[in-house]
Write a structure and sequence with these properties.
The chain is globular, with a radius of gyration of 19 Å. The protein has one domain. The longest helix is centred in the middle third of the chain and has 29 residues, at 93-121. Helices cover 78% and strands 0% of the residues. Helix 6 crosses helix 7 (130-157) and helix 10 (200-212) packs across helix 12 (231-257). The chain is built from twelve helices and no strands. The chain starts with a helix and ends with a helix. It is an all-alpha fold and 260 residues long.
Length: 260
Amino acid sequence: MFADTAVLVERNLLTVRRIPTLLLSATVQPLMFVFLFAYVFGATLGGGAYREFLMAGIFTQTVVFNAAITTVGLANDMEDGIVDRLRSLPMSRLAVIAGRVTSDMLLGIIGVVIMVACGLVIGWRIRGSATDAVIAFAILLLFALAMAWVGAVSGLAAKNVEVATSIGFLWMFPVTFLSSAFISAGSLPGPLKPIAEWNPVTAVATALREKFANASPPDFPAPTGWPAEHAAEYSIICSVVILVICVPLSLYLYRRSANR
């Protein structure tokens, strides 16, 4: 299974090398969000303090949006008939999906590295210990893995690339923006507040801020509730639960697609 996965990872990365524009969504888009939120919205939300608050949200948003790469890539493989050819080979069925997820994860890591550099340029700093920083990036990568498998489920459930693109953004935007990625969840009205507080995106962003020791702007309401008080633990629990659900579900959808 691991050897089959490695072969497919190499195949997917070779495709990126031959078509470099595939890197745009993993690199340029996050940079656009950094500058947009940091300088357009940040001017009225706390300036430098908001930029420190912002970066954890941008990191989290990026790994969520990178799930779209997996969704579209897997749907494209299904539509082009590549998956049908792989089915005829003596290889692990799970490796087909894992190969796509792993290669897209590697592209996502490149995007995170670029964002770290961009964050340093706009004044963001890691103010916690080196150990806490490593833990923060580990939490982020685990969540990225979970989101990639969500993307795999979406891609396998879609009938074609066009549908896959629509499915991806239908859940990515509300999940990302109904959270504390860019604002304090405590400022949301009515039922939106508890939804945002229990949103895994909020937990990951909060955990990163805690580990990076990035304070919120003074006028932002402080996060409250169990998810905020145990952000790192809740982030890990959410990621593991998503993986436990999505890995077998993606394999089921892959097997079912053979009967389409």
